[in-house]
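TA notes, week 10

Several of you asked for a full example with nothing omitted. So below is the full record: structure tokens for the whole chain, then the designed sequence directly under it. When grading your own attempts, check the secondary structure regions first.
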């Protein structure tokens, strides 16, 4: 392999149930190593720059990996999010790849004659065009087979049924959650112990961070994802809480 990662095994179809039996008994670091030993350079990380994915970014650093870390720049990010992406490149020299939607925010608004993110019907379309499509297109074009994430079962909701390895039919491949069995306290302890840079807005009542125009801080006692798409929810309504870039947040589980 040109990037120094081990060559992938010949068979790239994995028995998910058997793999999970093994992966459940491994540490987070060992799970990342398994992904790279199995899929070589076609194992990549999708990072939102939130603290859970920052743990996995640091595991890539610990293992000296040059596997790609994908970041989708929607054009609506907080500047702190872009700062953290740059800080990871500066500090760890990782292979961060920024992906962009086909249209700029201005071109999208011109085409649809609306700020789609301000409408219940427009938000899924906006998230699909600005997050999911650039990610899926890149992964398919490059033949990447497994996408690592920072998702954890302890986040609850749609993530409560996560397994370490799951299929993602969108990419005819897999998604792997190295810290699937961690909780927030363990994430915080890891980041502190290893002095990993953390998204500054986590300390300002933003437990979950997406695009600036769709994210607000949460109040004490609120669901950690209550700040996402708050403007699209009426009083007491459920509203959207996931963007769909992670297959397992949708109908996958
Ligand atoms: S989070 Fe909001 S601005 Fe960002 S892609 Fe989704 S709808 Fe668009």
């Amino acid at each position: 392999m040109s990037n120094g990662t081990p060559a992938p095994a010949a068979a790239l179809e994995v028995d998910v149930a058997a793999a999970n039996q093994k992966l459940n008994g491994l540490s987070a670091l060992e799970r990342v190593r398994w992904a790279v030993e199995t899929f070589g350079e076609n194992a990549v990380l999708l990072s939102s720059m939130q603290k859970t994915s920052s743990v996995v970014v640091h595991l890539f650093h610990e293992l000296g990996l040059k596997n790609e870390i994908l970041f989708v720049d929607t054009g609506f990010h907080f500047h702190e999010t872009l700062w953290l992406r740059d800080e990871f490149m500066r500090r760890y020299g990782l292979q961060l790849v920024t992906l962009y939607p086909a249209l700029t925010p201005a071109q999208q608004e011109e085409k649809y004659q609306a700020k789609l993110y301000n409408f219940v019907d427009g938000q899924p379309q906006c998230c699909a065009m600005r997050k999911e499509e650039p990610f899926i297109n890149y992964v398919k074009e490059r033949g990447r087979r497994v996408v690592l994430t920072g998702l954890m079962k302890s986040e609850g909701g749609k993530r409560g049924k996560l397994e370490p390895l799951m299929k993602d039919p969108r990419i005819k491949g897999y998604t792997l959650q190295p810290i699937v069995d961690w909780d927030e306290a363990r994430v915080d302890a890891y980041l502190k112990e290893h002095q990993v840079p953390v998204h500054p807005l986590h300390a300002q009542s933003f437990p979950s961070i997406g695009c600036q125009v769709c994210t607000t801080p949460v109040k004490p006692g609120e669901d950690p994802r209550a700040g996402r798409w708050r403007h699209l929810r009426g009083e007491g309504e459920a509203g959207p809480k996931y963007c769909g870039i992670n297959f397992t947040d949708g109908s996958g589980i």
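The first helix runs from residue 16 to 23. Use that as a sanity check on your answer.
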